[in-house]
Amino acid sequence: MSRRLLSLATLAAVLGSGTAMVNQEVFAQNQSVLAEVYGRGVHAYYAGNYSDAFDNLTSAIDGGTRDPRAYYFRGIVSHLQGRPEQAEADWKEGAELEAAYGGGYYVGRSLSRFQGSARLKLEQIRQQARLEAMTKAAKRSNARMNELSAGGRAPAANRAAPAPTAPANPKVDNPFADDVATGNPEVQNDDVLKDVVGNPFKDETPAPGPAAAAGAAGAAPAGDDPFGGSAPAGGDPFGGGGSDAGGDPFGGGAAGGDDPFGDPF
After folding, report:
1. Which Gene3D superfamilies match (predicted)?
2. What is the dihedral angle through the alpha carbons of 111, 117, 123, 126, rounded to the nearest 10 degrees?
3. Which tens digits make up the pLDDT trace of 121-140?
4. Can you say how many angstroms the Cα of residue 111 is from the centroid of all Cα atoms in its chain?
């Protein structure tokens, strides 16, 4: 039974795809025929045969053409024939088709020879149709978003990303934990070399004896001589006799002449 259903489903899919392809071919052929009829209407318009132009353009429109230029040119023919209301109605129909299916570049080139105040009116209608199409598209998009939000499924682009989890504060070890004394803090000795160097002169300094202590307590010798001797009257710091009349600092007698060594010639 399941195989039969599967076979029927496969056959239906094949037939459906084949039908779609046939319909697309038929639609393309029809559009080709309608484009040819539209072309004859445009040629009649440029030839000044407005009646034939109107008839051919009407045939293309009634046949289901999606070319907005068929409506534009039929509106132009109506405008030239003195029917402005029908012209504006065709222009609005063509502008709606253009806003829905595009083709503005080809439309602009086709309408390049149509100028004047009527062309300005046509351009206003085209612009208004584009604005209305944009407004409708925005409303449909908003409605779709509201439906998804009401159903608990917000669009992926509008979903708020979850907030990142804040990292836990890392535990920082106190590098001075071992240096902190428990209880009352004590002041340490500032001399870092106390236990290393010590006093290098403690073995060379003799203890002062009783005689040294008594001598240190005695009076200083008379005079200014730090060696305890009295200076001679002559001012000789070496303790020699006074100088002679000649002023010889070496104590020798000077000769009658100028020879300081006392040798006569």
Report:
1. Tetratricopeptide repeat domain
2. -100
3. 999 999 999 999 999 989 98
4. 49
Total-model pTM: 0.49
The CA distances from residue 107 to 23, 62, 90, 117, in Å, are 27, 20, 14, 18
Q: What is the pLDDT of residues 76-101, one digit of tens each?
A: 999 999 999 999 999 999 999 999 98
Pairwise CA distance, residues 229 & 242, whole Å: 16
**What residue type is 64 in one-letter code?**
G
Alpha helices per DSSP H over the chain: 2-46, 50-62, 68-80, 84-101, 104-110, 117-150, 210-217
DSSP 184-244: S--PPPS-TTTTTT--TTTTTSPPP-HHHHHHHHSPPPSSS-TTSPPPPTT--TT--PPP-
Question: CA–CA separation, 217 vs 14, rounded Å?
Answer: 138
Q: Among 90-99, 183-192, 241-250, name the one with the lowest average pLDDT.
A: 241-250
pLDDT band at 243 (very low <50, low <70, confident <90, very high): very low
Domains in the chain (CATH in brackets) are 10-155 (1.25.40.10)
Render 92-118 in DSSP notation, one character per residue.
HHHHHHHHHH--HHHHHHHTTT--SHH
Phi, psi of 253 (to 5 degrees): -75, 135
Contact 31, 61 (CB under 8 A): no
Token pair in block for residue 102: 């595009």
**Are residues 57 and 72 in contact, defined by beta-carbon separation less than 8 angstroms?**
no
Q: For the segment 22-45, what is each residue's pLDDT rounded down to a tens digit?
A: 566 765 777 789 999 999 999 999
8 Å CB contact between 61 and 71: yes
